UniProtKB/TrEMBL annotation:
<keyword id="KW-0732">Signal</keyword>
<keyword id="KW-0378">Hydrolase</keyword>
<protein>
    <submittedName>
        <fullName>Aryl-phospho-beta-D-glucosidase BglC (GH1 family)</fullName>
    </submittedName>
</protein>
<dbReference type="InterPro" id="IPR018087">
    <property type="entry name" value="Glyco_hydro_5_CS"/>
</dbReference>
<keyword id="KW-0326">Glycosidase</keyword>
<comment type="similarity">
    <text>Belongs to the glycosyl hydrolase 5 (cellulase A) family.</text>
</comment>
<feature type="domain" description="Glycoside hydrolase family 5">
    <location>
        <begin position="109"/>
        <end position="403"/>
    </location>
</feature>
<dbReference type="GO" id="GO:0000272">
    <property type="term" value="P:polysaccharide catabolic process"/>
</dbReference>
<dbReference type="InterPro" id="IPR017853">
    <property type="entry name" value="GH"/>
</dbReference>
<dbReference type="GO" id="GO:0004553">
    <property type="term" value="F:hydrolase activity, hydrolyzing O-glycosyl compounds"/>
</dbReference>
<dbReference type="InterPro" id="IPR001547">
    <property type="entry name" value="Glyco_hydro_5"/>
</dbReference>
<dbReference type="Pfam" id="PF00150">
    <property type="entry name" value="Cellulase"/>
</dbReference>
<feature type="signal peptide">
    <location>
        <begin position="1"/>
        <end position="26"/>
    </location>
</feature>
Amino acid sequence: MIVSRPAVRVPLLCLLLTLSALPALPAAGAAAANGPAAAGPAAAGWTAPLSTRGRYIVDADGMRFKLISGNWHGASGTWNGSGDDADDANHHAGENAGRVPLGLDRAPLAEIVAGFRSIGLNSLRLPFSGEMLHDTRPVTDAAVAANPGFRGMTPLRVYDEVVAAATAAGLAVIINNHTNTTRWCCGVDGNERWNASQSTAHWEDDWLFMVRRYRDNPRVVGADLYNEVRRSVWDDPNWGGGDDHDWFAASQRLGDRILREANPNLLIIVEGINWTGIPVDGFAHGRPTLRPAATLSHTLVRSGKLVYAAHFYDYTGPNHTGATGVGETSDPRYRDLSRADLAAVLYRDAFYVGAEPGRHFTAPVWISEFGVDGNAAPGSKQRDWFAAFTDQLVQADADFAYWPAVGWAEKRATNGWALLHWDRDGRRTGPYDGGDWRAGDWSRLVTSAARTGYIDPVPHWSMLSPDHGDFVQSLRMRDRPDWDSGARKAVCPDGQRLLGLAHTGNRGLCTDTTAGDLWAPSAAHQVVTDERHVTGDWAGGYTKLQCPSGSFVIGYAVRGAAVSSVLCATATTALSGSGRTVWFDRGDNRPAGNPGGDFATGNYKGQCGADEYVAGIAYTARLFSSRTPDALYCRRLT
């Protein structure tokens, strides 16, 4: 959920440096539940596993699978953090989930899952807490009153049953590490970062445990690595800073570990940074969201597995925490923006990732949390915002997940957020049962025209960023001994070739455009550290590292800023095209349109054409030089 959950949730990390906690937001809430089955993507069959092609998620047959999802919360915690956790009054909006997905006290599991299908969902985002995995206390009988077979189970075992039932009904399930502790999110509460109240190693171990647990269930399709990374009282998270608050590095490392060690088929879902800075007028503060990905994007060891995610609610804003009173600033909330301004902000902060093809950051964008108070009055800004926001989702053909899917009927008057709600007798009501003003917008979302059918494969563009250490994204090379000990190494994902390099900063750009996978299946790699393979003086007066004939550059190593070696792979086909030198020591030298996007912001960059490959790298070893790359030797593929 976003900084503050759709409902009474502590306002997003309002930490004035002098404050250690924030007041709760006004209650928001439950909602409706029953309704006629919606036509559309939810009813269609699909074949696991899922992967990505450009901005689209596709199934194993290459058919578009648009995530039309709901958030089924509860297992990550509903306790507000004070008072007796057995008392409903101490839980978010008075809804005590009992450490399991909300509603299992009111209706049989199969009926709840049927409710999701009835409103058009084809997938679930299923939050859990790190603490839940280790909680050995059996759930209370009251928490699973409508599912007596779950009595005596641990919360994790109940979670297992929920996953099994949802996937058996054809829903795709994305498991989401929502919190570290089993309590409501998202304030200054020990859940601000993946390592706010635990070590990064513990977080990674928990994730590998969860992924392996559901590895044999192909309809568990994704891992949403952490929810709403944000500032603690004193510290901001960052994207690429290289310290223990670096969300880019942490998510990159865990995503690679999941794909290598636990399940190569999962989608890896990375949320943007939800908040940095001090929410006080005059101090820097705001939501970076996915803006940093434009210049530093993830490159996973398996291409076609990355999905980016972002959250939006009306009561928050580009620079507004969502707080009311203490911690509130004079910045506009999203609901205060005009339609044009809202569209511009959404594009800048999230939608650009999927809207700009052929970039290193291009990926599907899942709006994995959004929602609105179903009690909003006619003519209110909340209603206007929801209509405008759903218009943007429809226009962008965006994947989405509503928060929350389930609520308690008796709390609806004060917490009107949920789409489906159940009363104590197990009766379900939903957006199509009358009286819910959101019905039209919801219906438009799940039935609107969208891209369907087969999605053609697209070239991959991948960024190499050995900023603070090795960035070896080749599975082949990770399985082989260190090829340049002591140097920082960067290698393209399997099947891609190096096409661009920065003069300073050490970043690179890889692709499989035009030629596809050129790597010979079993060929050994070659490490080049001298000029023995140089053919012709293509960079007079400069030291040249050139691959042997019939091979091409897939990686490089640096010591400090200096080039140390290049890594070459043998090609599957003959490489005999003509060559040219691309200098970039005094300015950018890239093809028109900068294909692949800006992979080294602020630094000079050189890049070969789409019909070329890098055969060599040149640098100068003159006195006082830093031995950084100065030129590429680009050769035609044929």
